[in-house]
Design a protein that fits this description.
The chain has 2 domains: 21-330, TIM Barrel (Alpha-Beta Barrel), CATH 3.20.20; 350-425, Immunoglobulin-like. Helix content is 24%, strand content 21%. The protein has 9 helices and 17 strands. It has helices at residues 24-29, 61-64, 69-77, 86-96, 135-146, 170-188, 210-223, 282-294, 313-327; strands spanning 31-35, 46-48, 54-56, 100-106, 149-155, 192-196, 228-229, 243-244, 259-264, 298-303, 350-355, 358-363, 373-376, 382-388, 395-400, 403-408, 418-425. Strands 7-6-5-4-1-10-9-8 form an 8-stranded parallel beta sheet. Strands 11-12-17-14 form a 4-stranded antiparallel beta sheet. It is globular, with a radius of gyration of 23 Å. Bound molecules: ligand FHN. Ligand FHN is lined by residues 59-60, 196, 247, 263, 270.
């Protein structure tokens, strides 16, 4: 359902993100793709020092492995992501049922992944890449074509710009950052600006103040008031921006009274790391998505393309498997457009989400034919129908005081999660 366009004169600085038309699409989508891709990808997670020892990290490799800046610049000059294929990446997102994308435009290394005019530390001017290509423009075009919202990540923390770490010249850094953000908004019209690095604790190197955060939000809203902003924009995570950003965890909702989005990796790194084979299973990822949606959160699941821009097959396969589960028997109804049930507590055997007058009970531990699944009611409501998606079996729903006892007559339809759809009537 297309959200109403916010009208002119809307006070974006004070509207409530929980109800604003500006965030409507984001609240409905539930599932997005994060992309960590930068000059660090050229190293693919391994840096060989002068003494022959190898140091490992991904997007933090510059800092964690102490790569001197001149060497890092040389490495970046070899970066040639010739196989970056926006249509393929967007298709992978689509296959997963992801409805928006957030791509790193600039990570902590300070390297701009678009042809910025602000400096030459960017993919066009400091690489071996085709100067005519602009991968952010390619992504924006492909995302638009697929009906996927496109957003950009921008790190406030900058390891490359010397003015970031110099209190006397910090305003010059800020001016350049503002200019880059204007380029991003003007050229790629992001629906999300996802900030990061406001938190770095290298004091006194981190000159980013709470006031800087407030100003930045006002600035972004002045560029385009419809942009959704995450909370890492300032120093007041609870009140800054529109969306909370728990990382690698699923919190109990609500998070400090904010909309929230859990960002997570598919293996143990954000950027490509050739040595990291610790991939999460499709079952685990799908259950995480269901759990997050059942608590009215969003899931921002990351891919890290390799140095040539290719997405690991392990990522592509898992994304598709998450989408396949959703496409089976309409099971995806438990996710997009759904949220916290309100009327029942989270059961021990799975999670429950709600969309309008339907509850979706995602059963992770199926009890077996004739065995009960119990839900604790938190509010009065009637169950007017119950069925197992993708199965002809009967399921009865009997109320016993504040408990709803569901008894399926057959076996689980799906080892990841079997969906029981309940039709409900609330007074
Ligand atoms: O330092 C970054 C990290 O590399 C990655 O980008 C994540 C994504 O949320 N954010 C930072 C750590 O909080």
């Amino acid at each position: 359902v297309a959200a109403a366009e916010p009208g002119p004169g809307t006070n974006y600085a004070t509207d409530d993100p929980f109800t604003s038309p500006r965030t409507q699409w984001w609240r409905d989508d539930r599932f997005g793709m994060f992309i960590h891709f930068g000059a660090y990808s050229q190293l693919q997670g391994s840096y060989t020092r002068a003494d022959g020892t190898v140091c490992h990290d991904a997007e933090w490799i510059k800092r964690q492995c102490g790569v001197p800046m001149d060497q890092y610049e040389t490495i970046a000059s070899q970066f040639n992501p010739k196989d970056f294929d926006a249509a393929k990446i967007v298709a992978a997102a689509k296959s997963a049922g992801q409805k928006y994308i957030v791509q790193t435009a600039k990570h902590h290394e300070g390297y701009a992944m678009w042809p910025t005019r602000v400096n030459t530390w960017n993919l066009r001017d400091h690489s071996s890449f085709d100067r005519k290509r602009d991968i952010l423009a390619e992504m924006k075009t492909a995302a638009d074509k697929a009906g996927i919202a496109y957003g950009l990540y921008y790190s406030i923390w900058d390891w490359h710009d010397p003015d970031f770490a110099n209190p006397a010249t910090f305003p010059k850094y800020k001016a350049r950052m503002y200019a880059q953000l204007k380029e991003l908004v003007d050229n790629y019209h992001p629906k999300i600006l996802w900030f990061d690095g406001e938190w770095n604790t290298d004091n006194p190197v981190n000159n980013w103040s709470a006031r800087d955060g407030e100003e930045l939000q006002t600035y972004v809203r002045s560029l385009d008031p419809s942009i959704v902003i995450n909370n890492r924009v300032g120093k007041r995570r609870v009140t800054d921006g529109d969306t909370g950003t728990p990382e690698q965890e699923i919190p109990a909702a609500p998070v400090d009274g904010q909309l929230w989005e859990s960002c997570m990796t598919l293996n143990d790194h954000w950027g490509f790391a050739e040595y990291d084979h610790n991939w999460k299973s499709a079952e685990d990822l799908t259950r995480k998505l269901l759990s997050i949606a059942s608590r009215s959160g969003n899931y921002l699941l990351n891919i890290g393309p390799d140095r040539y821009g290719a997405v690991p097959a392990e990522s592509i396969d898992r994304l598709k498997a998450i989408g396949d589960w959703q496409r089976t028997a309409g099971q995806g109804r438990a996710i997009a457009g759904a949220g916290s049930p309100g009327v029942v507590a989270e059961p021990s055997w799975g999670v429950v989400s709600r969309k309008g007058d339907k509850l979706y009970a995602s059963v992770f531990q199926w009890p077996g034919a004739g065995k009960p699944l119990t839900l604790d009611a938190l509010a009065p409501f009637d169950v007017t129908g119950a069925r197992v998606l993708g199965s002809a079996q009967r399921v009865t729903a009997v109320r016993d005081r504040n408990k709803i006892v569901l008894t399926p007559s057959g076996s689980a339809t799906n080892p990841t999660a079997t969906e029981i759809e309940l039709s409900i009537r609330t007074p």
